[in-house]
Amino acid sequence: MTETATRGRARLADPGEGIGLDELALATRNHGMPLEALRHDVTPPGLHYVLTHYDIPAVDPERWRLEVTGAVDRPLELDLTALTARPALSARVTIECAGNGRARLQPRPVSQPWLLEAVGTAAWTGVPLAAVLAEAGITAGAVDVVFTGADHGVERGVEQDYARALPLAEALRPDVLLAWEMNGAALPPQHGAPLRLVVPGWYGMAHVKWLTRIEVLDRPFEGFQNAKAYRLKADLDDPGTPVDRIRPRALMAPPGWPDFMTRERFLRPGPATLSGRAWSGRAPLRAVEVSTDGGATWGAADLAAADPAAPWAWRAWTAPWTPEPGRHELVVRAVDELGAQPLEQEWNRQGMANNAVQRVPVTVLPD
Amino acid sequence: MTETATRGRARLADPGEGIGLDELALATRNHGMPLEALRHDVTPPGLHYVLTHYDIPAVDPERWRLEVTGAVDRPLELDLTALTARPALSARVTIECAGNGRARLQPRPVSQPWLLEAVGTAAWTGVPLAAVLAEAGITAGAVDVVFTGADHGVERGVEQDYARALPLAEALRPDVLLAWEMNGAALPPQHGAPLRLVVPGWYGMAHVKWLTRIEVLDRPFEGFQNAKAYRLKADLDDPGTPVDRIRPRALMAPPGWPDFMTRERFLRPGPATLSGRAWSGRAPLRAVEVSTDGGATWGAADLAAADPAAPWAWRAWTAPWTPEPGRHELVVRAVDELGAQPLEQEWNRQGMANNAVQRVPVTVLPD
After folding, report:
1. Is A27 on the interface with B (CB under 8 A)?
2. Which conformational region is residue B15 in: left (phi greater than 0), alpha (psi within -120 to 50 degrees), or beta?
3. What domains appear along chain B, each with residue ranges and CATH number?
4. Is B196 helix (H, G, I), strand (E, B) or coil?
5. ipTM above 0.90, yes or no
6. What is the mean pLDDT of each run of 10 residues along chain A (367 residues)?
7. CA distance A131 to chain B (A)
């Protein structure tokens, strides 16, 4: 890793400052899931959110190898044929970007400017990471497992291959996968071909794409993405706490139809059904609540039962609504065993894990 | 079509005004093709640019019908089984959004804020439109053919299903397709499932998605998307001229690696190969030219021969470059039989068809 002087620290936007061309360049290449795609239980690949820190790397699957090294008894070098010959599992998993909601924060941390749409659910197929680690033989005293991708770039002056560590206990969970398929097809380039990590319940930064190397460490990992980038910090001097599991969130497919430019919603009066999905990576979901009066009063939505085969996938919810003509503000919140989504932002310096509730202004037209 | 008062006309951003949350909401749901994907001759579906005016509609392919009506002898109503039973063609076609380059214009028309990346190439499979029109029997005096999609919304106060007309002569071209497949698979929802129009050589607004209705008119179409939205206008009073065929453009996959936030590029010194793709919908391509000194001097790139089987698909180009350490500005331009891409913007009121050249600042590191 070499230091190249670009910029040292993430910036906060000034009050009222619009989105800059740097943020826009990220927004036009990364993309969210249009919220009407909440109708799909499994998000079609091109609608699943994508965040790529650097460029999507060109990986030749024939020449690609996965190295398993560090504090292990038997270092491994595996090709795709060797990996895909193993017994595979499939799991439907909801993944959300840790930066989802960032562009709504005030003041706004300048980075990828997500509003609400950085989420998606896919069926991932691969081999349990624990099985590969068992084959390599983890030595006593191992602490962290570092996953390195083929994507290369600079971030706040640090040149790096993207690398993230998991605590050993998380890496050994039986549902953490080394995945080569998404929704029954080979991984698309932007989703990590030929191999990516899937860590159900964690925000997206943990699901390392274009995986080339797994290193077991006998000490905590101090790399950029763990020590600096993905932390909940009050200010620049705060070392902060790690971003890890996904906070609860419910999203609504906005009803009616939009204005092209403002994305305002319009609807005809009469019986309607509000619908969407809800999830949490930190604790079981308990309820979804809907308000049609801007949060003054709340009612329980009908929440689909948890699927025991997919404990980390979002769950559908619906709520009937028969609106009168006029302006309404719809609000939805998920409640898990640890509490409800906040009505107001819980600000932090890098704009991580903002799960403040979605608000959907709707104009119901005259009869 | 009912008028709902939202906003009357597209706005121009003030000097120095950042991108607004309304523009950002469009940028996070629509998405461009990350420029490193220029390495793919056929763009994988999730990397192909997408622009959806309103919401992606939920169309049930079992209940879906295509109506062919208006100035025809035999109105038709076709289901998917009837359509897909016909002899089909496949064509590799490059499609670019008419708004590509808009966010670089000064002053900036406020709409979908594309930088450079609203493009993609796919293999589309379907039946020639001309065959279906022949079956319906176009009556003498027909002028325009209107294509209506299932997507519904409001635009500058006009509630509408998205609808665009083609002049009859364009509609009768043998290479205009009613397509149900993209790259050998059923159309994804965001690309127009179950059926879309493909008009090779034209900007994206002509390729109507989620097609439900084809109407032959014996008079010019006066609908919003032809008469108001997609026009090259000097100012609000100018009726303007229609946006139609794609102007020439060459794009470069930026070399080296990026800074996450600024997207600045870094590279090591030594021999490199610059590469990308070039296309034009208005005239045959003649050359691609590259400058490595900000446009002071130019050299011819090596442009791949045109593929007679894909006259409307982009062509690959390469150019060798052995840079010295320091800052460089790379520029690339396509030249077609009608001329070269402009070095400076050709501004218009709605920010359409801005094909000013791409500029790529690159820092080459010390040896």
Report:
1. yes
2. beta
3. 21-233 (3.90.420.10), 249-364 (2.60.40.650)
4. strand
5. yes
6. 50 94 96 97 95 98 97 98 96 98 96 97 98 98 98 97 98 98 97 98 98 98 97 94 98 98 96 98 98 98 97 98 97 98 96 98 96
7. 31
